[in-house]
Design goal:
about 425 residues, alpha+beta, four-stranded antiparallel beta sheet, about 65% helix
């Protein structure tokens, strides 16, 4: 019969070649896998709508792309969790003298007991669910950021337009004051005051230009473009979104991304407890091989079974940790539920107050301020009012207009915050956009 040592060496050599070949193939497949990079998106040089801005950001936002990569990586964890232990090949030689040498070749295979593999797969699947919940939360966060940034641009455009109107009014007031000074009807001091007011408005116009530039860059940065190309944010800025009632919004809170993530974390922690409990059951290792005794001149079959004795390490520490972290996850779920309800109510209150303020300004204060300014301007031309009356009326009107724009923007920010908290795509329909 053929001696075992050369045969064993041949088996080991073939196994090594196969292992190296498979490793090289696997490494090559991973190296050849395409790397998903965030596309470089630049918006067209045209008016930009909220819908288009959302589409660009959800397509090319780098933070959102990173969350997608994490979700894809979690699939690898599920794949790895289902893998069974590899067998191992062992060769043992007793006595180096050829005539009395004994050679043993064994294949050892560990058998997982206690449901370890199923528990591991379940925990990995819950980890994948957690990554998907993080992706949904990041998506809601980016969507709310786009809404806020878009209406920041719209408000900055309105402030710039208001500043330009203010400059035109100031210029008219300066011209009128100069004519009346030339006619000897008012003091030159009034003309100086008019020119000072005009210079102040110019400074405000420059500030409005800077705020618009900053707001535009902040918006396009959400899809990775540092140099905005769009002409303007196209929206019906004064048409505030009409959101559902607070009770209806709170009824949707159960699907909020933060709440879903906390719930999945509880499930993941429970699955990890099952993993740690399964580790308390020792695995069984089967050994099958052949033994060559040269002094006897024959081969002998070898069978073996081994199992560790859980005398000292019964995985009690890891199990205790997993149980306490499960309790922690349940507490965090309760805190998340309370936080979602509270934040939704507070954001809705801010939205309602801002909307009410904007309505009051639009229907009551702005018309009165406009009428007072028009009357003061007309009366100044006919000598019925002094120049200070005109400046005061102009200042009142512009302050009311600025307050109106700020109230509208506060309402949009609060509505965007509600959208972020609830992560509800249907709320987008309530935002006024062409």
């Amino acid at each position: 019969m053929r001696p075992l040592v050369p045969a064993a060496c041949s088996v080991l050599a073939v196994a090594t070649v196969i292992f190296v070949s498979l490793s090289n193939v696997q490494a090559a497949s991973f190296a050849a896998a395409p790397q998903a990079l965030t596309p470089n998106v630049i918006e067209p040089a045209a008016p930009l709508t909220l819908t288009a801005a959302l589409r660009l950001a959800l397509q090319a936002n780098p933070d959102l792309s990173a969350a997608r990569q994490e979700t894809a990586a979690a699939e690898g964890q599920v794949m790895q969790a289902g893998a069974s232990p590899n067998p191992d090949l062992s060769l043992q030689v007793e006595d180096l003298r050829k005539d009395t040498r004994t050679t043993t070749l064994l294949v050892n295979q560990a058998l997982e007991l206690g449901g370890k593999r199923n528990a591991r797969i379940t925990a990995a699947e819950r980890g994948r669910d957690a990554a998907q919940a993080d992706l949904a939360a990041k998506r809601a966060e980016i969507r709310a950021a786009v809404i806020s940034a878009f209406f920041d641009v719209a408000a900055a455009q309105e402030r710039l337009r208001l500043s330009q109107v203010s400059l035109e009014l100031a210029q008219h007031a300066t011209t009128a004051a100069a004519h009346r000074v030339a006619a000897g009807k008012i003091s030159p001091v009034d003309e100086t005051k008019a020119r000072v007011a005009e210079a102040t408005v110019r400074l405000e116009l420059n500030q409005a230009n800077g705020e618009l530039t900053t707001a535009r860059k902040r918006l396009t940065a959400l899809w990775g473009n540092p140099s905005p190309r769009f002409d303007r944010a196209e929206s019906q800025f004064e048409a505030l979104p009409i959101l559902p009632a607070l009770t209806e919004l709170q009824a949707r809170a159960g699907q909020a991304p933060a709440l879903m993530r906390a719930q999945i974390e509880v499930e993941r922690r429970i699955a990890l407890v099952q993993v740690e409990q399964s580790k308390r059951t020792p695995d069984l290792t089967l050994s099958v091989g052949v033994k060559r005794a040269e002094d006897l001149g024959r081969n002998q079959a070898v069978l073996g079974v081994s199992v560790p004795l859980p005398l000292f390490d019964r995985n009690q520490g890891n199990l205790f940790e997993a149980l306490r972290r499960t309790d922690k996850a349940r507490d965090e779920l309760s805190a998340s539920r309370l936080r979602v309800d509270t934040d939704t109510a507070q954001a809705y209150e801010r939205y309602a107050n801002a909307r009410q303020e904007a309505e009051a300004l639009r229907q009551e204060i702005l018309p009165g301020a406009q009428t007072a300014y028009d009357a003061a301007t007309k009366g100044f031309k006919f000598g019925k009012f002094g120049f200070l009356d005109v400046l005061d009326a102009q200042r009142t009107y512009l302050q009311a207009k600025s307050q109106y724009v700020r109230a509208l923007l506060d309402a949009y920010h609060a509505a965007a915050e509600i959208d972020r908290i609830l992560g509800d795509d249907s709320l987008i329909e309530h935002f006024a956009a062409p």
